[in-house]
Design brief:
The structure is a single chain. By secondary structure, the chain is an alpha/beta fold. It folds into 3 domains: 54 residues, no CATH class; 176 residues, Rossmann fold (3-Layer(aba) Sandwich); 82 residues, Orthogonal Bundle (Helicase, Ruva Protein, domain 3), CATH 1.10.8. The chain is 54% helix and 10% strand. It is built from 15 helices and 8 strands. The chain has a 6-stranded mixed beta sheet. The longest helix has 25 residues. It is globular. The relative contact order is 0.09. It comes from Gemmata obscuriglobus. It holds the Pfam family AAA. InterPro entries: AAA+_ATPase, AAA_ATPase_domain, ATPase_AAA_core, P-loop_NTPase.
Length: 337
Amino acid sequence: MATAEQLKALIRSHSARNDEQFRAVTLQIAAHNAKHGNPRLAEELRGLVEESRRQAAAGTPRAVPIARPSGELAGLVSASYPNTRLSDMVLPGRIQQQLQDIVHQQRQRERLRSHGLAPRRKLLLVGPPGCGKTMTAAALAGECQLPLMFVQLHALITKFMGETAAKLHIVFDAMAETRGVYLFDEFDAIGATRNASNDVGEIRRVLNSFLQFMERDDSDSIVVAATNFIGMLDDALFRRFDDVIEYELPDTGAVRMLIENRLSSFTLSEVRWPAITAAARGLCHAEVARAAEDAARAAVLADVTTVAGPLLVEAMAARRSMRAEKKKRGRKRRPNE
C-alpha cells in the first residue's frame, strides 16, 4: 500500500501535470510494496511506469482529462471519448488521404508551430446523410486521442436576440481552454446564406458572430462542421475552413467492402455482386451496413452461419423501399403541395 505522503505527492504531481514526478512517486510506491511482501504489485507498477515513459518518448498524444463539460458549457456541449479509427471507415482514397494528412499534422503540430505554421484543423464536411460525416469527427477524435465535443444546436440556437451569439462565444472559449474535436452537426442551421429569402435578422447576426469567432480562433482544437446541404451555406464560410471534404454515396467497391466488413463472421454463399450492388444503388453507407445487419439477423434466427446472396438483395430492396417511403412522407408534409 502507498503511504499517506505518497498519495498526497501523487495527487500534487497529477494536478501540476508533472509526469516525471508522478512516475517517480509511483516507483517509490513500488519499492515500498516490494519491501513489504507484495512483489507482484511492485513489478506491475514498474511495468506501467516503463510503458508510460515509452509512450512519452514516442510522442503519443494525451487527451485532456475531462469527465464532462461543466457550468454554462454543460448544456451546450456533450463530451465523449470515441475509440473509432479511420481504418474502421469505408471511404474513397482521396478522403482517406485527406483525413490521414490532417491526423499527421495534428500529431506534428508542435513541429509545425516551431516553423511559424499551423496544422489544418478547421474542416467542413458536406454530403448526403449517412455517408460518414459524423463518424469522421469521431475517428479524428479517436486518432488524436481527444474528446469529441458534440455541440448541441437545439440548446445553442434560441429565439432571443443576442443569446445564440453569446452561447457561441462560450463554445469558442471552451475550444481555447480544452483541446478537443468540436462537432457542429447540421451546420446549415447556423451557416445558411445571409441572402436567403426566409432569413431573419437574428440568424444573420448568428452567422456573422460565427464568422468572427472562426476568424479569431487560434486554439489547438479541431473544428468540424457537417452539413447535408452545401448549397445553403453562405459563401463567406468557405474562406474560414482549411479543408472542405465532400462525401458521396458508396460506389460498387465501397458497397462490397461495407458488406464484407459487416459480415466478416459469416460465410457468404450464392453471392452475385452485380445483383447486390444494383440493389444497393442509391443507399448511403449507413443504410448498406444496416441492410447487411438485417441479413445477418435473419441468418442467426434461422440458426445458420451462412448469409446467402438473395437474402442480401432482399435486405437492400427493403431498405430502398423504406427510403422511398420516407421521402414520400416528407413531400406530403410540405405546405401547399
